[in-house]
Structures are given as C-alpha cells and as structure tokens.
Amino acid sequence: CALQPTECFLSQPEEKQETTTVKAKRRKKKKISDILQKSAPKPGVPADLQNLLSQHFAGNRSVIEIEELTLSDSCFLPANDLTHSFSSYLKEICPKWAKLRRTHTEKKAVVMLVICSSALRSLELIKSMTAFKGDCRVLKLFAKHIKIKEQMNMLEKGVFHIGVGTPGRVKALVEQDGLCLSSTKFMILDWNWRDQKLRRMMDIPEIKKETIDLLEMSIIKLCREGSLKLGLF
C-alpha cells in the first residue's frame, strides 16, 4: 500500500518533447511558394500543357481516348517568352485582329477567349489590353458579382469580340448553351502570371481541374480540327 508508482511519471516530459518535434516537422512541409521563391520563373511552353494533360488522363482513360485528347504543337500559338505585355503578346499572335473584329457578327460567341485564375486578374487583363483591342466589345466571364443569366442575356442580345474570365464560369456558359465556341479562333491561358502566394493558374487545384474540364469538353476537339489555337501568355 505504501509503494507509490512514481517511476511511471518520469517518461512523460520526454513523450511531450517527441510529439512537439513531430508537429514541428509536419509544419515544415514545403509550400509551393517556398519552392518557387528559390527558382527563377521559366516561361510556359506547349510541352508543359501537353504533359499536364497526359498526366491527368493517364490513369483513367483508354489509349484511344488519350490519343483523342492529345494536342500537337500545331495547335499552339507562339508562347510568351516573359518579355511581352499582354497587348504586345496579343498583337504578335493576332496581327489581323482589326479584320477579324470587323467581320465577327455572331451573337452568343467571341473571337478570343482569355482564361485566368480569378475575377480580379480578369479585370487586370482587360485593363492591360487597351493597346490591342481597338474598337471591340469585351465581356467579363467570371462569377463574382455577375449572375450567369446576366451574361447569357448579354451574349444573346449583342455581339462581343473578347471574353475574359475564369474556367468555371466559361465552362458553365458553354454547358448551358449561353456561349458557343464554334467561331472562337483563339484561347489564351494566363499561364505564367503568379498570385501573392506565387501560384500560377495551374498550381491551384480547382482552377487546374476546371481548365482541363473546359479543354476536354470542346477546346481540344476544336484545336485538333484546326479552327482554334491555344496561346500561353
């Protein structure tokens, strides 16, 4: 009765120390921003998107399906080598823009689609394309503060030349027959831009998935048929 089991308390402080070390180790998991801070930005090239698509589809598609979802180099416009402003890039890839703009008369359609990671970034790009767009109508295609029905009405009633927005909203508009891609000639992905956390659009899982879904839905087919070209800005 008089014996006290004091020895069992001795190991406690050690255990505590061990768990805090494990927690600290867990916390030190590398974030994408840590990796990117140490590496110089490299401009995106067609092979980057091609590899991304083949990795994405590799596990759950047959060989024939993967073949149908493969993009060749001929599907791409020249990529931005990081020296361009948005306007100068668009001028390089689309020198005959004035003529294309004049001849486009279709409703529910745009000549050029620009896909980026957020509403805020869409607005930035719209502001920065002034030297390129000339006398054309640009439509915001993101979900923030704009109802999809509003965008569908605008597309149905007027002629727009450029659509700038997020992949999720563009995909929803195509699915709901609010936007037709048959007369779209260019789709530009805002590939190289990095947000505050240094993530590019394809580093954000949700944006990456929605972009790939949009590409798979109809863009890849249009690229393979030669009616649409992809650009990596």
TrEMBL record:
GO terms for cellular component: 90S preribosome; nucleus. It comes from the Eukaryota. InterPro entries: Cms1, P-loop_NTPase. Coiled coil: none annotated. Gene3D superfamilies: P-loop containing nucleotide triphosphate hydrolases (3.40.50.300). Pfam families: CMS1 (PF14617). This is CMS1 protein.
